[in-house]
């Protein structure tokens, strides 16, 4: 893709996401909007690993103030997606396939814990939203829609964290999710089966919504088995 076409695609993605935020019945605070927009751009490689960013340029690009941009960047730094270099700028971190296997060791255990807890503790509203996400994942699977999948994956991750009601596990999980989402997006075209991955996410969401911790744990293990196979295939490639 040419530089001009890439920039146009980049801009269309930002506009699409901002329109979706404006249409929401419960608009996010500005910091939440800044985080969502920046996280998606980093995870989907529209902002590339190794790129140096500035608060001023990001504020101009996204049409948001520098304070929400700064707060969003601090959150992204806590998740390992950027490194803030005082008086130099913000560096987007690199990816490493072999390190992702270490990330996965931790994620597998945390995700199982949180899925089982969410199956027990989720509210009725959260269970309804889980089923909506599952339906969306089914649609993404049928249409091989990577951007729909990525956005639903982000929403599902956040919902599981909230429904588990375990702030300590939540802190650890948030530090892993963005790193793995970006790694998956970087390599999925060469090593992943997106429709299958979306179906496994749908099964996970429905198992949690149904309220059985054992069923939720098994659905989580099935997804993590797939993710591990994908990661190993990428690391050995």
Overall description:
There is one protein chain. By secondary structure, the protein is mostly helical. The protein folds into 2 domains: 3-92, Arc Repressor Mutant, subunit A (Orthogonal Bundle); 97-235, GntR ligand-binding domain-like (Four Helix Bundle (Hemerythrin (Met), subunit A)). The protein is built from 10 helices and 3 strands; from the N terminus they run ααβααββαααααα. Strands 1-3-2 form a 3-stranded antiparallel β-sheet. Strand 2 and strand 3 form a beta hairpin. Helix 9 (194-210) runs antiparallel to helix 10. The radius of gyration is 18 Å and the shape is globular. Mean pLDDT is 87; it is low at 1-12 and 20-26.
Describe the secondary-structure layout:
Layout: H1 3-23, H2 30-43, E1 52-53, H3 55-62, H4 66-78, E2 82-85, E3 89-92, H5 97-121, H6 124-143, H7 146-164, H8 167-191, H9 194-210, H10 213-235
Antiparallel strand pairs: 1-3, 2-3
Helix pairs in contact: 2-4, 5-7, 5-8, 5-9, 5-10, 6-7, 6-9, 7-8, 7-9, 8-10, 9-10
Strand content range: under 5%
User: What order do the SSEs take from the amino end to the carboxyl end, as H and E?
Assistant: HHEHHEEHHHHHH
When the domains are counted, the total is 2
Helix coverage percent: over 70%
Indicate the multimeric state. Answer: single chain
State the helix count.
10
Overall average residue pLDDT: 87
Poorly predicted ranges (pLDDT <50, ≥5 residues)? 1-12, 20-26
Question: Which architecture name of the largest domain does CATH use?
Answer: Up-down Bundle
Distance between the termini: 24 Å
- Which structural class do the helices and strands define? mainly alpha
What is the fold-level CATH name, i.e. the topology of the largest domain? Four Helix Bundle (Hemerythrin (Met), subunit A)
CATH class of the largest domain, please? Mainly Alpha
Which sequence of strands runs across the widest sheet? 1-3-2
Work out the radius of gyration.
Answer: 18 Å
